[in-house]
Amino acid sequence: MRRLRRVKILATLGPVSEDREMIGRLFEAGADVFRINMSHSTHDGMRERIRTIRALSKQYGREIGVLVDLQGPKLRVGTFTNTSVELVRGQTFVLDSDTTPGDDRRVNLPHPEILRALAPGHTVLIDDGKVRLHITEAKPDRAVAVVDVAGRISNRKGVSLPDTEIPVSAMTEKDRSDLEAALNEGVDWIAVSFVQRPDDIAEVKKVARGRALVLAKIEKPQAIARLDEIIEVSDALMVARGDLGVEMPLEQVPGLQKRITRMARRYGKPVVVATQMLESMITAPVPTRAEVSDVATAVFEGADAVMLSAESAAGQYPVEAVATMNRIAEEVERDSVYRPVINAQRTAPEATGADAIAVAARDVAETLDVKAVCAWTSSGSTALRIARERPAPPVLALTPKRGTARRLALVWGVHAVVTKDANDLDDMAARACKFSNREGFSKEGDRIVIVAGVPFGTPGATNMVRIAYTTSET
């Protein structure tokens, strides 16, 4: 089941893709990592899906990653006497702490901390921005607003506050419970929603204690303002274009996508491009031409992974959506323009031994036209540093830790294999050649580049590059 592409595919599971047969079909179509959205899953449902994925991993002999996406704080208005109201442009509308059902003049905002944070001039978006207001007067229990974009508001519609830093943690009590349940099941990645500050990620990492890596979803203006700090503390990033496009002008999202993907690569952190990539395939067997171009753009940008949401979770054509994304990625990576574009995005390595070795391995690999770069890695950091350089040959990661192999399923160009650690330098070279041949990267007489740290098993000790020839004996 070796992929013929470098970019990975992250597929969301849902009502149409929760049984073993369908998850297996999605994997065969090209999914590398599966996402479980806790906004729509119970703990029992999550556990069942993880067990199914682990069983399929054994069946196919390939490590499959699992990402659990925490819901985060969901802000919503209260209820209305008549279920909904129609707001008119220019009218005054009040958000308050009164729990009485609302009308066309006011409604409850059941988040006292938000009412206290609102200030004159702040924008309030309701129902994914379909209705827009701006605050003219703010008190701790009451905010007066004027309607800028008219529309209908119904019970419990979502609220977005692009100008307001929400003075609450990115983790709710539900998230804490979901996080513990996910960690207990050995999940590989945790995605944190509505990140505003690096502290939001640090809080989750403190609970995770290394049991899972933590991915920051970038979907708020406050996160953009502190992007460097958030990237530094995160293990990976997601360009969550859905909410990002609600809270910021839509025309800014493409530029932000490029900025985030390139910053993530500079830091050597995996980055996922997500939301509405093949949206029309929820109801249609083929995507629009614009959607194909959207996926292709993310691949050309060097994103580590592209993600399907409702397309694979609730759509009518989940397998076709994954297969389509797989074909687009393969075709882009075969294009003669792809490699020059990827190379043009390279940045100077950090001044560390591991980065210097990774650059050297890339240069050797491309100068000698080797078939694979084999990275012996315990924590996964060696494979990550090599992937940051986006070498032309694929990266074969050899690791004694199954958890490391699963985490690397999200990383550009990395094919991970679980094996015991090398005994010595000769064993390291011989087994790297053996696995390179076995996994279909090379054949007898081909050259490979081997990267490792000596002494073996020492995290972060990447300090050696070796060239080896594969033989029939290995």
Structural summary, described in words:
The chain has 474 residues and is α/β, with parallel strands linked by helices. It folds into three domains: 8-72 and 170-334, TIM Barrel (Alpha-Beta Barrel); 84-160, Beta Barrel (M1 Pyruvate Kinase, Domain 3); 353-469, Pyruvate Kinase, Chain: A, domain 1 (3-Layer(aba) Sandwich), CATH 3.40.1380.20. The chain has 17 helices and 21 strands. The chain has helices at residues 20-29, 43-60, 112-117, 173-184, 198-208, 221-225, 227-233, 241-247, 253-267, 289-300, 310-313, 318-334, 338-344, 353-368, 381-388, 402-407, 425-438, and strands spanning 8-13, 33-37, 65-69, 84-87, 92-96, 106-108, 123-126, 131-139, 142-149, 151-154, 159-160, 189-192, 213-218, 236-240, 271-274, 305-308, 373-376, 395-399, 414-418, 447-453, 462-469. The strands form four sheets. An eight-stranded parallel barrel has the order 1-2-3-12-13-14-15-16, surrounded by eight helices. A six-stranded mixed sheet has the order 6-5-9-8-7-11, with no helix packed on it. The protein has a five-stranded mixed sheet with strand order 19-18-17-20-21, sandwiched between helices.
